[in-house]
Amino acid sequence: MHARRDTVADERGGGCSGTALLAYPAAHVTASPPPPRPLSLPRRIVRGAFAVLAALWMVVEEWLWDGLVRLTKWIAKLPVFRAIEARIRGCGPKTAMALFAVPWLLLLPAKVLGLWLMGTGHFATGVFVFVVAKLLGTAMLARLFTLTRPALLQIGWFRRLYGWFTGLRDRLYAYVKSLRAYQATRRWLSAARTWLRALWPTRRRAPKGS
Prior knowledge:
Layout lengths: L1 H12 L1 H13 L13 H36 L2 H11 L3 H6 L2 H19 L3 H30 L3 H23 L1 H26 L5
Helix pairs in contact: 3-7, 3-9, 6-7
């Protein structure tokens, strides 16, 4: 009887508490985020063009980098350069930092010559000289950085800058590689490279009179 009376009292006077119990969880329910809006047509076009250009640039960069690495490794096998590289590896951080001005100073006359040729009407020759000087400078800088990186990483600000740059580069590359336009362009370039490699021996084996 007492239990029944308590139940009736709870049913009559507990409306407020029941409402509070019902309202309490509702106040703490987190709303689900709205679904992402589809990209507009201009933004899709820009994004696709960016992915295609990025794919082309990354393929060219890899091709140039691999070629430059092979070239510098071949040059490093020569006795005179082997001795120079041994001395470079033993440099301290400050000396290693100063060495990066050497390729720029060595190739500055060639770049000036290229610009002068372009300005005097020999445009193709000037562009060729300038591009060759730029490639040689890039190869020298890449090899120099490989040799001096342990010393350079002893400098605090350079170590932090290098870590920030490599992290940013990796995130950017990961984003570009996740785009479908990049993946499609990469597959197309890979197929084109395979076709050219298969075609080149056939052209070389073809008779001269054909």
